[in-house]
Write a structure and sequence with these properties.
The complex is a heterodimer of chains A (521) and B (366). Chain A has helices spanning 51-58, 81-87, 104-112, 118-131, 147-159, 177-192, 204-210, 233-241, 301-309, 332-337, 358-366, 371-374, 383-397, 413-425, 443-458, 470-476, 499-507, 513-520, and strands spanning 11-22, 25-36, 40-44, 66-71, 74-76, 89-92, 165-169, 196-201, 213-218, 221-226, 259-268, 278-286, 290-294, 320-322, 325-326, 340-343, 431-435, 462-466, 479-484, 487-488, 492-493. In chain A, a hairpin with a 2-residue loop joins strand 14 and strand 15. Chain A has three domains: 11-241, Rossmann fold, CATH 3.40.50; 259-339 and 431-520, P-loop containing nucleotide triphosphate hydrolases (Rossmann fold); 358-428, no CATH class. With 521 residues, chain A is α/β, with parallel strands linked by helices. Helix content of chain A is 34%, strand content 23%. Chain B is built from 15 helices and two strands. Chain B has a domain at 57-293. By secondary structure, chain B is mainly alpha-helical. Helices cover 69% and strands 3% of the residues of chain B. In chain B, helix 1 (13-37) crosses helix 2 and helix 13 packs antiparallel against helix 14 (325-346). Classes of the chains: A alpha/beta (521), B mainly alpha (366).
Chain lengths: 521, 366
């Protein structure tokens, strides 16, 4: 692999044998990476492959255990993000670090750490944003901006420091397809100006479209360098995962059963200053059906989940019906007793208590529904029965773990998610509501989870999947509705749904809502 | 240069178990230094402090007398702290429990029957629980900080007791001393084994309460609810548990146990109400709860250790002539070292150079 000589004038960054060890885990093992000037370089890999660790070392947030980094041919020690910025490395994180109660310009000023007046910064940011086709009003409050606009702030903030290398971590995961196109134009422009970009992603199509070269990581090691334009998506996927990845098999919905979950004109006031209100939501799901809800993050999906699960109650009991019973005023336990099961977006701290063992986390969501099996008359927990059930779920869902009954936080994201989904499937729920079923989950586990959801529906249950991953929704849904700005569009049958049509709805350009309102009125 | 605490990737089980003992050892070392600064022989001082009180049977009884309220209060506090409710006002709940429990023997001294004592104990529990319900209600209804409200209510209770024993409840035959009439024999909590010393049934209550709460925490659904809501409130809500009900549960249990400790102390060890009925049991119990690692069984051991520090303080006062404030200093050092050891199990200290790494923390925790 080591073919390019050091101090080659073309290369901006050369990394040799970079290694980072956490305990016994080699998160990065002898990683080599070369980024030329003026190229967009993809860093591909599944979750947990070591991409983030590598990037954190490049940005100075983590110290490598071994290996060297050459910048413009000179060996450098990047001991902190401050050093990285001084060298000319800028980073746009996947999770933004912005203060919602401040304006865009104020947020930018905070990261510059000098005494430039805010008005100067605002003017510079405005000029820069328009010249790169990322229009941004520096005086707007971050809390009022969409996720895509917030990302622009991060990008502008990064560009203001005139970096030579820009690291972007999964930038399109929060964008609509149309917004992503805009971003690609900007990136191509930066490339033509001679900037280098390290582009982290697991979306193969966009990597093939955008990137000049790619480094692929698996289990902490570099498994290949390639030109993505010469590869097919499946050959890239094979390199990433190591084996062939199966898509979930979708059989067509055989018989539409009776209505199991219905939401009738539900509205909800915003719970906090920056949370989304829900506006007149109508939805009906029958047994045997998988309905997907698409949408850019932060358009009310979390609020919708809380409302359906009963963590937030409705004003009217009829706003939500589960298996024909009015459930709007019922808490989450009562809704579970009606046959509903819920899987929230956040695994640690919401779907599972991080410091508790898996068996305790089984009890977490099932102490009421399986009251007799798991809890004796006096409230004493039957730990034997729970252990047994936990082991059953672990086997069925193929949860990989290091100890017999480890703490939830000790599992990888994918394995914990398999356990949480399995915990609910084990009950054979009539209604299953899942928010982001495969967020941050490796491809193998994701396929397993999607298959399980489809099978559940085909056995007569109603399944509602809220997801930002359009590929996933197209793979498993019978119809797709779109959330935008707290409103839900009418579900589009999968046969009529196209990426473009869903994308437009996600951007709010063609609201399906009025159309839908007419029908119910 | 500045100092940072960086989270350790994994916790050492060995050091987690050793931590209370390390804290005790460090307290002894710091205590020895303190005594030598006071001009005393540290070895002799520590001997009087920690060994001498254990040499005779009657002083073991005294140990049980002092340990009983500490254990009773601390096991209740462990429920509070495990469920993330910071009740600092056990001293006040102790006092109000003592006042409520004393209504019968003080106001109706002629009512003498076997039922008086059980009624007193129940009223003591009710008094402490109701007083604990005040900060709980304020927290649930108005989102006030329970640390402040429960602490402030301590001073209210102390001043109320002071006024009661100087005013309405003063002993008519007591030569104007600020104290109530002494309780009739039927209102006195009996000694366990009166032939050898003073220890009363309060100590039995403490052990029973500790075992009962240990069972609840480790074996029942209610205990699971306490732990889940304390560790991850959002997961607790997802489980269908109510945060507000848990606030009340924790405060009522810990208030009730503090109230029981209060009436047991007054009825068993003192025999009347006085302006001061507690040498700070309610506060020392906070140390006991943490030294016992919030585990009711560990709290039994920790309560005995802290009780020893009270006895040792008295002994040191007599034999060495040091101030009784030394007791407070010891307890303070002990709490400091317990918390410091616990913190260092979870975090390590890192020294950061002046200019470097401004945002290290932020990005590492992403």
């Amino acid at each position: 692999m080591d073919t390019t000589p050091l101090a080659n004038g073309r290369n901006l960054l050369e990394v040799r044998g970079l290694t980072k060890v956490f305990g016994t885990l080699k998160a990065c093992d002898q990683v080599d990476l070369t980024i030329a000037k003026g190229e967009i370089h993809a860093l591909l890999g599944e979750n947990g492959a070591g991409k983030s660790t590598l990037v954190k070392m490049l940005f100075g947030s983590l110290e490598p255990n071994a290996g060297e980094i050459h910048w413009n041919g000179q060996p450098v020690m990047i001991t902190s993000p401050g050093v990285a910025k001084k060298l000319g490395i800028g980073m746009v994180f996947q999770h933004f670090s912005l203060f919602e109660a401040l304006t865009a310009a104020e947020n930018i000023a905070l990261s510059l750490a000098d005494d430039t007046p805010i008005s100067t910064i605002a003017a510079k940011a405005r000029a820069l944003s328009y010249s790169y086709g990322l229009p941004l009003d520096p005086d707007s409050l971050v809390g009022d901006l969409s996720v895509g606009e917030r990302q622009r702030i991060e990008i502008i903030r990064c560009l203001l420091q005139t970096p030579d290398l820009i690291i972007l971590d999964e930038p399109t995961s929060v964008l609509t397809p149309q917004e992503a196109d805009k971003l690609f134009e900007t990136l191509e422009r930066l490339r033509s100006e001679g900037k280098s970009i390290l582009y982290i992603s697991h979306r193969l199509d966009e990597v093939r479209r955008l990137c000049d070269s790619a480094t692929i990581m698996r289990h902490g090691k570099v498994v290949g360098h390639c030109n993505p334009r010469l590869e097919t998506p499946s050959s890239l996927a094979r390199m990433m995962v190591g084996t062939e990845v199966k898509n979930a098999e979708r059989t067509t919905a055989s018989v539409r059963g009776e209505e199991l979950l219905s939401i009738c004109g539900m509205s909800r006031k915003p719970a906090g200053p920056f949370s989304m209100p829900l506006k007149n939501i109508w939805l009906s799901i029958a047994g045997g059906e998988v309905i997907g809800i698409a949408g850019v993050a932060g358009n009310g999906q979390g609020e919708l989940f809380e409302a359906i699960s009963g963590e937030a109650l409705q004003e009217s009991a009829d706003a939500i019906r589960i298996r024909g019973k009015s459930a709007g005023r019922m808490g989450i336990s009562a809704r579970r007793l009606l046959g509903a099961a819920f899987v929230p977006e956040e695994r640690l701290g919401h779907g599972a208590a991080p410091r508790m063992r898996l068996s305790d986390n089984l009890l977490l969501s099932r102490h009421t529904t399986d009251g007799k099996a798991f809890v004796s008359g006096l409230g004493v927990v039957k730990s034997g029965a729970i252990q047994k059930a936990a082991q059953r779920i672990i086997e069925v869902m193929d949860v990989r773990k290091s100890a017999p009954d480890p703490e939830a936080a000790a599992l990888s994201g994918g394995n914990l998610q398999k356990f949480i989904i399995g915990r609910e499937l084990d009950r054979n729920p009539a209604v299953m509501v899942v928010n982001q079923p495969t967020w941050g989950v490796d491809a193998g586990a994701a396929a397993r989870i999607r298959q399980a959801l489809i099978e559940l529906a085909r056995n007569g249950s109603a399944v509602l999947v809220i997801s930002q991953d359009l590929d996933e929704l197209f793979e498993i849904s019978d119809s797709i509705a779109v959330m935008h700005n707290g409103e839900l569009s009418k579900p589009i049958p999968i046969a009529e749904a196209t990426l473009e049509r869903i994308g437009l709805l996600m951007g709010g350009a063609e609201p399906g809502h009025p159309d839908h309102a007419k029908e119910v009125a | 240069m500045r100092i940072e605490l960086v989270k350790r990737p994994e916790r050492s089980a060995l050091f987690a178990a050793l931590s209370p003992f390390i804290a005790l050892g460090l307290t002894l070392i710091a205590g020895a230094i303190m005594f030598s600064l006071l001009g005393k022989n540290p070895v002799e001082a520590l001997y009087y402090y920690f060994i001498d009180p254990l040499r005779e049977v009657w002083s073991l009884h005294e140990l049980a007398v002092k340990a009983a309220p500490l254990i009773l209060i601390a096991v209740g506090l462990s429920i509070c702290y495990l469920s993330n409710n910071w009740n600092i006002g056990a001293e006040g709940q102790f006092i109000v429990g003592a006042i409520m429990g004393s209504i019968l023997p003080v106001m109706f001294p002629d009512f003498q029957s076997w039922i008086v004592l059980p009624l007193m104990l129940l009223m003591g529990i009710a008094g402490g629980a109701l007083y604990g319900a005040i900060p709980a209600y304020l927290k649930v209804r108005f989102n006030t900080n329970e640390i402040l409200t429960s602490l402030m209510l301590v001073y209210v209770a102390q001043l109320f007791l002071d006024w009661m024993v100087r005013g309405p409840w003063r002993n008519p035959a007591g030569m104007n001393f600020p104290e109530t009439r002494t309780f009739s024999p039927s209102a006195v909590l009996p000694e366990i084994w009166s032939a050898s010393g003073r220890a009363n049934w309060g100590f039995v209550f403490a052990i029973v309460a500790a075992i009962a709460l240990w069972f609840m925490l480790s074996r029942t659904l209610k205990g699971f609810e306490v732990l889940v809501l304390g560790q991850s409130p959002r997961a607790g809500r997802f489980a269908g548990f109510s945060q507000s009900r848990m606030v009340f549960f924790a405060f009522l249990v810990s208030g009730g146990l503090a109230g029981l400790a209060g009436i047991s102390e007054v009825s068993g060890a003192i025999g009347q109400l006085r302006p001061t009925i507690s040498p700070g049991y309610g506060f020392a119990a906070i140390i006991v709860a943490f030294l016992g690692r919030l585990n009711p069984l560990g709290i039994i051991a920790a309560g005995l250790v802290l009780a020893l520090s009270y006895l040792g303080g008295e002994a040191a006062q007599i034999s060495l002539g040091v101030s009784d404030k030394v007791v407070r200093a010891f307890q303070g050092m002990l709490l400091f070292f317990v918390l410091a050891c616990d913190t260092l199990i979870l975090y390590r200290i890192r020294f950061v150079g002046a200019s470097a790494a401004k945002t290290v923390e932020a990005t590492q925790n992403v």
